[in-house]
Write a structure and sequence with these properties.
The structure is a homohexamer of 78-residue chains. Chain A is mainly alpha-helical. Chain A has three helices and no strands.
Chain lengths: 78, 78, 78, 78, 78, 78
Amino acid sequence: MDTWLTSLITDTPQQGFELAITLSRRGVKYTQPDTEVLHKLRPEYANSADSLTAASQVIAINFQTVAAANDYWKGKKG
Amino acid sequence: MDTWLTSLITDTPQQGFELAITLSRRGVKYTQPDTEVLHKLRPEYANSADSLTAASQVIAINFQTVAAANDYWKGKKG
Amino acid sequence: MDTWLTSLITDTPQQGFELAITLSRRGVKYTQPDTEVLHKLRPEYANSADSLTAASQVIAINFQTVAAANDYWKGKKG
Amino acid sequence: MDTWLTSLITDTPQQGFELAITLSRRGVKYTQPDTEVLHKLRPEYANSADSLTAASQVIAINFQTVAAANDYWKGKKG
Amino acid sequence: MDTWLTSLITDTPQQGFELAITLSRRGVKYTQPDTEVLHKLRPEYANSADSLTAASQVIAINFQTVAAANDYWKGKKG
Amino acid sequence: MDTWLTSLITDTPQQGFELAITLSRRGVKYTQPDTEVLHKLRPEYANSADSLTAASQVIAINFQTVAAANDYWKGKKG
């Protein structure tokens, strides 16, 4: 596979959250690399409340990792 | 996407909990950006005990992150 | 919403566990604020083993947060 | 409710694991205090592989908390 | 119950992973101690992709605990 | 079983993510060692959005462990 992850450090928490989304999608893609299949599956979860909650949960778990890596961007006060 | 997350630091644990809710909803919204679809799905999970428990679980995971970022608001005794 | 969470610090681990329950219920309530709907849903999960396990899991996740906030009440030996 | 949790500190990791089981069961019991109902639900999950896995997962989450509280009983080498 | 867990410390990460599997199985066994029932349930989950994923998840959670206990075997570079 | 895990330390976060995938698959394989069965189950989860999300979640949990072991590769800025 191509190089897609060289660092967990991001400038802002929002970029960190978006990195967590990337990690979540890559977890799917390593398991099912066929993008055509993935494309076909999209309506199945994008229109199901429970599937969306499950997707949000994976993002939350990955965001824990990214946030810890960035020491929670503690210097930044919104 | 717009800027919606500039810091994980909040003044109170309750604000932190509410930020955890925001993170959970954003996790859904990044996966399904169409607000009309999201609106239609609302009755599906808002009236299902198991879906609400699942939603509460995602909030709990995100609250772990926000709480750690704020060093658990340790100075605050209720 | 009213002020319901001013601190994660509790005197005993049991109070901390009960705070974790409060956090879990609030996670539900923020998602479905209509107490009448929540009341109607109660039999659905309170009589399902899997729903009760799921509820216990959310409590366990929130208890991790509360316990860390209290440095695990390390001074207390039962 | 009675006093059932005065400390997270245990002498051995096995006692810690058993405390994690207690926490998991209490999470259920706070949600459904009626022991008769709980008794009736037992066959439903005790004979389902997926329910048992879910129960084991809640124990695993609570064991993380108890193990951290005991600094992983690091002095003990089996 | 017999003594089965005297330490979380292992020599290698692989032994730690195998201890995580033991913890996961014990979590099931404390909930359903009847080995005959457990034996009958085996085909139900060992032939279901989702059940196997769920089992792997419990192992992953327990492995977090064991890995932290061993300070991630940081001295070992593969 | 053969030796397959001698260290959690990797050079890059991407290698760490791929190790997390290995851990997730091994968790399945310890539970169902019959590779023929595993092969037959593949279509069941590789074509289900919810199964893929669940697989991604186990990877996310294992990635937390691997990332912590590597101190989040903090020296690496992408």
